[in-house]
Design brief:
This protein folds into two domains: 32-175; 190-255, Immunoglobulin-like, CATH 2.60.40. It has 256 residues and is mainly beta. The chain is built from two helices and 16 strands. The strands form four sheets. The chain has a five-stranded mixed β-sheet, with helices on one face. Strands 5-1-9-8 form a four-stranded antiparallel β-sheet, with no helix packed on it. Strands 13-12-15-16 form a four-stranded antiparallel β-sheet, with no helix packed on it. The protein starts with a helix and ends with a strand. It is elongated and about 60 Å long.
């Protein structure tokens, strides 16, 4: 015979499992890719044009998530802001999966990407994040910049104003598959050819609506047909939001 204490224990475990289940379901974790492009310039140091630079991600509470780029070796300790951020999580100068190299001999375009994970490889929850950039060309703190963006199931393109040492800034988040309550996980949806010249055939079941958007959020096609036609629009990368009777999915489409 089960005792009252056994029944209470089982009920408590059940309630905990239910809580954890709904917490996981309601917490979006969208996979995707953030692309960052910047052009660097001198911060006025005595070693210019030689410079060291770091680019990394922090979450909404200011906690270090992942380094995207770090060009620095012998003078790495002068990237004080980046050092403090990595130190705070017990992993000083963490460069897991980052683009790395020595002190740069000059300035130019720097490009790096973020796959939405932290330095341990765990996919981060959707929400607000901050891109951090730091550059110095002297044996002390140089210039530092911070730009907020949103990781989620919607694409986002930002072109912030120039800041000291950082110009022509471009930040683009492109989600791959939106996860959560409306995630399509039990069948595949695709279109071909991709890349293509403007006409695409959509393959999938129970499709209700298709919407094609530019990376800046403008809709260029919308309908409930399995043929996508964007011939009149310029070449480039587009996002396709596909709504079905069982959920939604976001795919990347390339026109060339």
């Amino acid at each position: 015979m089960k005792t009252l204490s056994t029944y209470t224990s089982h009920k408590s475990i059940f309630l905990i499992l239910i809580f954890l289940f709904f917490r996981l379901v309601l917490t979006g974790q969208t996979s995707g890719e953030l692309t960052v492009t910047i052009t660097t310039s001198s911060s006025g140091g005595n070693y210019a044009p030689k410079n060291i630079v770091a680019i990394w991600i922090e979450n909404s509470t200011g906690q270090f998530v992942k380094t995207l780029l770090a060009y620095a070796q012998t003078r790495i300790t002068h990237l004080n802001t980046w050092q403090a951020a990595t130190n705070a999580v017990g992993s000083e100068f963490n460069r897991t999966d980052a683009i790395t190299g020595a002190t740069q001999s000059g300035h130019g375009i720097r490009t790096c990407k973020w796959n939405g994970t932290d330095y341990n490889g765990a996919l981060m929850t959707d929400g607000n994040y901050t891109l951090k950039m730091e550059l110095t060309d002297k044996n002390e703190t140089g210039n530092y910049s911070s730009i907020s963006f949103t990781k989620g199931s919607t694409s986002q393109t930002l072109n912030p104003s120039n800041t000291p040492s950082f110009s022509s800034i471009g930040i683009t988040w492109i989600p791959s598959v939106a996860t959560g309550l409306t995630d399509v996980t039990n069948f595949e949806i695709s279109f071909y050819p991709n890349p293509g010249s403007g006409i695409y055939t959509l393959i999938g079941n129970n499709i209700k609506e298709v919407e094609v958007k530019t990376l800046t959020g403008n809709t260029v096609f919308k309908g409930n047909t399995n043929i996508i036609d964007i011939c009149k629009h310029q070449n480039g990368t587009y996002l396709v939001l596909i709504k079905t009777t069982e959920g939604s999915v976001v795919k990347k489409l390339i026109k060339n």
